Amino acid sequence: MAIQLMKRGVGVTLLDRGKNHSSAVASGMVNPMVFRRMNLSWRVDEMLPYARDFYLELEDTLKAKFYDTLRIRRFFSSEQERGYWEKKQHEVEYQKYLTLHDDFDEKVPLAKNEFGSGIVKKAFWIRSKRFMEKMHLFLKEQKVLQYGQFEPAKFILEELSYDGSIYDSIVFCCGSDNDKIPYFNQANIQHNRGQILHIESSELSQHELWNRKGFILPVGEEKFMLGATYEWNEPSLNITAQAREKLEEVFQTITEASYEVHGQTVGMRPTVADRRPVMGEHPEHRGLFIFNGLGTKGYMLAPLLSLEMAQYMTEGIALHKEVAFSRFYK
Ligand SMILES: Cc1cc2nc3c(=O)[nH]c(=O)nc-3n(C[C@H](O)[C@H](O)[C@H](O)COP(=O)(O)OP(=O)(O)OC[C@H]3O[C@@H](n4cnc5c(N)ncnc54)[C@H](O)[C@@H]3O)c2cc1C
After folding, report:
1. How does pLDDT run along the chain (330 residues), one tens digit per residue?
2. Are residues 71 and 107 in the same domain?
3. Domain endpoint, select from 271, 296, 314
């Protein structure tokens, strides 16, 4: 959001608490498919290419590498799922994302492959921790980023001033902590906790992500992320033994390879009941905006949605109706 506004010549001040529990923890995958429903991701034809170009341009700006292409192999869970893929791979809108398979029973060493597997094209992933560190460094150098908690006592709503400085607009992008901000509670951003195991194995493919009930993402040097859990309304940010057990079960559903666990991380996805982001201006307080609800797909959605948000704020171009905050009030 800050980058998009800065590109349009808008002066930006970012206030961040300095502790991130989603963007910096995420596995950072951009997958055109939603496997649970065997559907394409929302607005994928617009979102995915824009996001790719956005991150590649940012690599130049930040002088850092965090973008990698990703080959995703989905192991089917049933004959029915394999049937869906077989049908969809011939449909025009799916053809760019699903590899045509004549032989779904391709042997994959050490994988549990009883219903076959398919390959997703055009996916990529962002090394989220590195991306966030480099972003912070850049925004600090640009004198845009300040660290601190938003304190309502320092905020005068009538004049849009915070800590003595007056602003034209204030955008709340607080992720799952939206409920601690008094203005946009109608959106009811829910806490969807996610945990990831960090593992090492010399037996797994380092060239493709394996997915079935969860994923094993190769991150280099025989290291992998094994994820992720979806735990609803668990507000604490503690790692748990139950999540580790669940993720190890996922691993065993996918492969017989041996591995060692080296760590476990936890984060919170800011999720909305209708699975669409939330953007827009407050109906009563002009100049107050929200940009939130990126859910499980922030890395794919944020680049184009932040452009649309910047266009809405600076040129009055209407937001996509499915994301509008106005859907929460009459
Ligand atoms: C385990 C896990 C795996 C994931 N994997 C993927 C994936 O593979 N692909 C994908 O696209 N997405 C993934 N996600 C989801 C993705 O992380 C989110 O969609 C996205 O990062 C949300 O971004 P955000 O900026 O809205 O929220 P956040 O990243 O949470 O950022 C909100 C920021 O606001 C600050 N803040 C909040 N309240 C205040 C306050 N009062 N004062 C000052 N600062 C405040 C916080 O410090 C934080 O930095 C994953 C998430 C998790 C937890």
Report:
1. 999 999 999 999 999 999 999 999 999 999 999 998 889 999 999 999 999 999 999 999 999 999 999 999 999 999 999 999 999 999 999 999 998 776 666 778 888 888 999 999 999 999 999 999 999 999 999 999 999 999 999 999 999 999 999 999 999 999 999 999 999 999 999 999 999 999 999 999 999 999 999 999 999 999 999 999 999 988 899 999 999 999 999 999 999 999 999 999 999 999 999 999 999 999 999 999 999 999 999 999 999 999 999 999 999 999 999 999 999 986
2. yes
3. 271
Ligand 1 near 225 CB (within 6 A) = no
CA distance 116 to 102: 11
The minimum-distance atom of ligand 1 relative to the CA of 268 is 53
Mutation test of ligand 1: which of 174, 176, 237 has the most ligand atoms closer than 8 Å to its C-beta? 174
- Which CATH number does the domain housing residue 261 bear? 3.30.9.10
CB of 21 within 6 A of ligand 1: the answer is yes
Q: What is the pTM of this model?
A: 0.96
Cα(first)–Cα(last) distance of the chain, in Å? 27
Any domain includes 280: yes
Domain that holds residue 13: 2-22+130-187+274-328
18 occurs within a structural domain: yes
Residues 206 and 140 in one domain: no
Q: Transcribe 125-181 into DSSP letters.
A: EE-HHHHHHHHHHHHHHTT-EEE----GGGEEGGGTEETTEE-S-EEE--GGGGGGS
Residues 216 and 98 in one domain: no
- 30 belongs to a structural domain: no
CA 72 to chain centre: 16
